[in-house]
Amino acid sequence: MNKNTIIYMDKIVKSYQIGKSKLTVLKGISIEIKKGEFVAVLGPSGSGKSTLMNIIGCIDVADSGKYVLAGQDIKVKNDDELAYIRNKEIGFIFQKFNLLTKYTAEHNVAFPLLLRGIDKLEAHQRAKKLLESVGLGDRTDHKPFELSGGQQQRVSIARALVGDPALLLADEPTGALDSKTGEEILDLFVELNKKGNTIVMITHDLDIAKRAERIIHVKDGEIYE
Ligand code: ADP
Ligand code: MG
Known about the structure:
Blueprint: E1 5-18, E2 21-34, E3 38-42, H1 49-56, E4 64-69, E5 72-73, H2 79-89, E6 90-93, H3 105-115, H4 120-133, H5 149-161, E7 167-171, H6 179-194, E8 199-203, H7 206-209, E9 214-219, E10 222-224
Parallel strand pairs: 3-8, 3-9, 6-7, 7-8
Antiparallel strand pairs: 1-2, 1-4, 4-5, 9-10
Helix pairs in contact: 3-4, 3-5, 4-5, 5-6
The structure holds adenosine-5'-diphosphate and magnesium ion.
């Protein structure tokens, strides 16, 4: 681990209690991801990808093991501190976009900055700039239902980028798109990675994972590179 390490996990264990039995979903996962990498986490359904993503994304915490995100030891944090780290360090991209349906593209993108207390005018200026950078400069006033799936995913990518996070964390980002639109989103990821963004993309599809520089395979809660 050095100053270029964005994700450092050492022997991460996570179990779920189901009735009287305990299901160990992550069985001692150790990963290191450096600044500027584009990594795919590949595994079949039920292998523990979402559980791992929730821990990487500070949505959930491990039972044991060490997790350091952008130099911060996650174990010592309370819920408010975790929420702050989540907002500051991670740009989330979900399969189903998770946009606010009542708001325009620009407001959706500005939203994480407004949550941080950034001035409204500045937040909207930055949102506009990010939408332009993902090719949606002429769609800033559209609401999600007035946009195609691919366009909605671009809005969510702009939203993920707007706070200049240490990490882009994408869960099956092309899962709700047709294959051609999915390719365009993957092209955008490659382009963003070339510009220096660190990307972790969760997928069950080998062809999609191959677009990343590095693949981490998850199987039965263990990893193989
Ligand atoms: P993936 O995203 O790779 O499909 P998950 O991380 O969602 O895998 O799930 C891994 C395993 O953990 C599955 O067997 C699933 O049923 C179980 N699991 C996930 N979340 C919970 C939960 N909240 N409570 C109990 N079991 C869970
Ligand atoms: Mg999953």
